[in-house]
Amino acid sequence: MDVKKRGLLSVAYAGVGMVFAAAAKFDWLSKGAAASFLSLSWVKFRAPFMPRHLALDLGRTMFAALNSVEIGLCAGLWLLHFLVSSDTGDAVWRLILATLLLAVQAAWLYPKLQLTAEFALYEALKEMDDDSMSFNQKMQFGEIRHQVQIQDRPRVIYHILYVGAEFVKILTLLSFALHFLKAIPA
Q1: Keywords on this record (predicted)?
Q2: Does a structural domain hold residue 45?
Q3: What does the DSSP assignment read for 139-175?
Q4: Which of 184, 118, 179 has its CA nearest to residue 152?
Q5: 21 in a domain, yes or no?
Q6: Residue 165, Cα to own-chain centre: how many angstroms?
Q7: What pLDDT score was predicted for residue 6?
Q8: Do residues 131 and 170 lie in contact, with contact meaning Cβ atoms separated by under 8 Å?
Q9: Which of 6, 29, 55, 99 is deepest in the core (most CB within 10 A)?
Q10: What is the pLDDT of residue 82?
Q11: Which residues of the chain are modeled with pLDDT < 50?
């Protein structure tokens, strides 16, 4: 997914964050938890009839889209905070921490994981017959081949750092959401 499409998705979800005001505090948490610990990590590799290259391609495409959704929800929460919220205490620090973690993931770690996925996809597809690919697939594979040839394979530490940041971010968002619930008058 190119930067323009990711930007449009992010803007669209910033609006969603405003529309769903209070729900957005839980939406980011739920999407992050579901994407990180279920759909993107191990579920796709458990499907017995899904070829590895298809699971890898599906995973990297979903990962890009959900990363954009997270950015949009984060922007929506900040807009919500500045336009609606009167709370300036602990909750702000939780949102700042979640935002910083997301920024590090999106700007530094995500490109490394994307390149790792391209290396794995290249390895899975390099023996495939060109006649079995569509024109679009050949073009995409050419771009992947070029990236793999001009760059070094990222180290596994980037994946570990991403998972660690995701875990801390989810705990932070859970704390943020619970803080919001406690602030609601009984």
Answers
A1: Membrane, Transmembrane, Transmembrane helix
A2: yes
A3: HHHHHHHHHHHHSPPPPTHHHHHHHHHHHHHHHHHHH
A4: 118
A5: yes
A6: 12
A7: 81
A8: no
A9: 29
A10: 83
A11: none
Residue 153 has a pLDDT of 97
Classify residue 18: in a domain, yes or no: yes
- Say which residue the tokens 């596994």 belong to: 156
Tell me the whole-structure pTM to 2 decimals: 0.80
Give the rounded distance of the alpha carbon of 152 from its chain centre: 23
| Residue 78 neighbours by CB under 8 Å, 6+ apart | 95, 99
Owning domain of residue 160: 3-181
186 in any annotated domain: no
| Distant-in-sequence, close-in-space partners of 6: CB < 8 Å, separation ≥ 6 | 64, 67, 68, 71
Q: How many angstroms separate the CA atoms of 132 and 44, rounded?
A: 23
Which amino acid is it at 185? Answer: P
Residue position matching structure tokens 């875990």: 167
- Locate 70 and state its tokens: 């997270």
Number of folded domains that form the chain: 1
Among candidate residues 164, 176, 177, the one with its CA nearest the CA of residue 36: 164
- Tokens 């700042």 found at: 96
Burial class (CB in 10 A: 0-12, 13-18, 19+), 24: buried
